[in-house]
Amino acid sequence: MNSLIEGNSHVSLCKSLTLVASVLFLSVVFSLPVVFGSQSLSNEVCLSCHSVPGLENERRGKKISLTVDPQRFSQSVHALLPCTVCHSDISQVPHAADLKPVQCAQCHGQAAADYQTSVHGSAQLNGDRDAATCSDCHGKHDIMKAAHPESKVYPLQLPYTCGACHGDPALAKKHNIPVANAYKLYMDSIHGRALEKSGLLVAANCTSCHGSHRILPQANPQSTVNRRSVPETCGKCHAGVLKIFENSVHGKGFAAKKPEAPVCIDCHTAHEIKRIDLDVWKLEIVRECGTCHAQSLRTYRDSFHGQVTALGFTRVARCSDCHGSHDVLPKADPRSSVNANRIVATCQRCHPLANANFAKYDPHADPADHARNPVLYFTARFMTGLLFGVFVFFGLHTALWAARPLIASVRKRFTSGRRGEGEKNG
User: Fold this and answer.
1) Cβ contact 248:327 at 8 Å
2) Cα separations (Å) of 377 from 250, 349, 356, 368, 399?
3) pLDDT for 276-330, tens place per residue?
4) What φ, ψ does residue 65 adopt, rounded to 5°?
5) Cβ-Cβ contacts under 8 Å for 161 (sequence gap 6 or more)
6) What's the predicted TM-score (pTM) here?
7) How far is CA 392 from the centre of its chain?
8) CB neighbour list of residue 229: distance below 8 Å, 6 or more residues apart
9) Does residue 112 have a pLDDT over 50?
10) Which among 51, 304, 306, 314 is least buried, having the fewest CB atoms inside 10 angstroms?
11) 65 with 72: CB under 8 angstroms?
């Protein structure tokens, strides 16, 4: 009897243990999504799917690659972070096909705030999906530190990153971007060549002038490329030139907020800055000065120097040779290179034997300006009158001389006619 009871107890115990094991097994199976929750999903689990080449999805009409290169990710700045830190809406695997956009602001608050006020952020808020986002500039799963040579925002890589949009004429036309080929112009400039050809990291790149996250439209007074900000922006690299400019007639005019006062980009341009020792620059700068000093350019073109430069030669005096470049001063200023006390020394740079009489030459003499050049004015009037008189006199003389044979011919015919008529009557 006892053995029967013990046997039944043993069977009951086995059934109970089996039931408990079954419950535990089912609990584990159905709780796997909870076990692999948002905080416990390892990157290896994610990469087991996302390392497969060709994995993609469609978002806003565009195909997006979902493939992650494990090696590139392991070298990225986010390599030590779980995937779910950025993809926080993933709580189980498999996860939903459409995930919420990654919110970089949860870690990069200040950069995100700056971006929201930028020209790119404002465009995104207005529904422009072509405007650059964080991933367009920094990458996605391959983000490197800015100082890393392979980073998309490393100085040597940055022009190519910005050029993806600002080197696309079709995109520029679509969004009314004023400079359609900024990338090409920059790469051909002295800054672009210094960066690309010489690898000089100190050469100005896109962010040096425009900023990074808080890029503002040029018309915005707070923009680093606003006209009022340009000297300061350029002065971050060209500090010595900025100091000289501030003491010049142009710099003082700028400080006084005179609208006609030139700034760096008026003479050097913005994206296509050239080396100043090139002939093309030396010739173009003469015309550039003339955009403000039209009268001086006209009188310069009448001089020997001006006529030679008009033919494409540069071994003659140009505006900056006499007036200076960043240090242009009023003629009355004793420090000016065209002041009466310094003009001889200025001329002697090209003409070593120049003296005070030589320096009396007026390179901007204007025969139409009575106040500045009275002798030249009256001489020009006299020569003009003389020339006119000579042409009138010899014009009349030629006309009368040309008419003489015609008059003689008519007279001869008239005389012959009368003679023939007389003989007929006789």
Assistant:
1) yes
2) 31, 30, 23, 6, 32
3) 999 999 999 999 999 999 999 999 999 999 999 999 999 999 999 999 999 999 9
4) -75, 135
5) 136, 137, 152, 153
6) 0.77
7) 58
8) 221, 222, 223
9) yes
10) 304
11) no
